[in-house]
Automatic annotation (TrEMBL):
This is Branched-chain-amino-acid aminotransferase-like protein 2. Transmembrane segments: none annotated. InterPro entries: P-loop_NTPase, Pyrrolopyrazine_biosynth_F.
């Protein structure tokens, strides 16, 4: 049997694409899905995001204007290999804390009953509980002091010319939605208290082999040391094709040849030092936007951090 599909929920700029590349080295027994729900979230008829709202040509060029959340789920669950999904938790939520309705294309599927309240409306996502129950969830996080500046950089020149994300939207930071998803899955028993799998990207970068081995053990997948290397043309071509739809976001991961331990560790800068660096790169306005977003999301990161896998 292929095993229960693995769903790694994360937020932007968490080193998640490098993490995904580890599992892409095993096309013989693992099928990787790269951010599939973004197709429906940004471009489809049920899209929840306001991004690209005034850019119909760009949405049309994406090729996903007819893609519904049901289409995404159906395509994922047809796989005959062990499925590894890496996706943004916020793709399952209406932005800015708005109430999230079930995707119309999934309205005929039972949403389940909340075990604590008996409330059928307790599910905070656009995906029915009956669908969420099909996945083995894990989570990847990174300190907002590192992820938010990295995300902002992709929304300003010169990278914005490639990414097409023409403004920085703080609601896309993704931490609040990741925490809400985690808490809901715990409440429903889909994430057991004695089987929580959350990895911090900085821990992974310090000890990649140990981190991947611990993750594999947690999700019932055999660990192979060679998973940490992808320095041949076949792997590179596979990754280039998989990441094509989000041009400009994965340059570092595409340029890599493996997941290697960091050989040097920079001293963690003070807030004043960070502010000075951000101001020098993005101006006073950019610095303030980044700092406000970091401060807003730090409590959710700290909350999730307490559950991280030790290795």
């Amino acid at each position: 049997m292929a095993g229960r599909p693995i769903f790694v929920a994360t937020h932007p700029r968490s080193c998640s694409t490098a993490f995904e590349r580890v599992f892409m080295t095993r096309p013989d027994d693992i099928s990787c899905a790269h951010e599939p729900f973004g197709d429906a979230f940004y471009f489809g008829p049920e899209r929840l995001s306001a991004r690209f709202a005034d850019e119909p040509k760009l949405r049309e060029e994406s090729g996903f204007t007819k893609t519904t959340y049901k289409d995404v789920l159906d395509s994922l669950l047809k796989q005959d290999k062990r499925l590894f999904i890496k996706d943004m938790a916020y793709y399952l939520f209406a932005p800015q804390g708005q109430p999230t309705s079930m995707a119309p294309s999934l309205a005929d599927q039972a949403n389940g009953v909340d075990k604590q309240t008996g409330d059928r409306a307790a599910n905070p996502t656009t995906i029915p509980l009956s669908a969420l129950q099909k996945f083995r969830f894990a989570f990847l996080i990174r300190n907002p002091r590192r992820s938010i500046p990295s995300y902002y950089r992709c929304t300003v020149p010169p990278l914005v010319e490639t990414t097409k994300f023409n403004e920085f939207m703080p609601c896309e930071a993704g931490y609040k939605e990741l925490r809400r998803l985690f808490d809901y899955l715990r409440a429903q028993g889909l994430v057991a208290d004695d089987d929580i799998t959350i990895i911090d990207a900085d821990d992974l970068l310090d000890r990649p082999a140990e981190g991947i081995e611990a993750f594999c053990k947690a999700v019932d997948l055999d660990f192979r040391p060679e998973m940490l290397q992808w320095d041949d043309s076949a792997h590179q071509d596979h990754a280039t094709a998989a990441f094509e739809k989000w041009a400009g976001w994965h340059n570092d991961a595409l340029a890599s040849t493996g997941l290697k331990a960091r050989t040097s560790h920079k001293k963690t800068p003070s807030a004043d030092e960070e502010d000075a660096e951000w101001a020098s790169k993005y101006g006073a306005k950019g610095q303030k936007i980044i700092r406000d977003c970091v401060d807003t999301n730090m409590p959710d990161y700290d909350y999730l951090k307490q559950f991280t896998l030790k290795f």
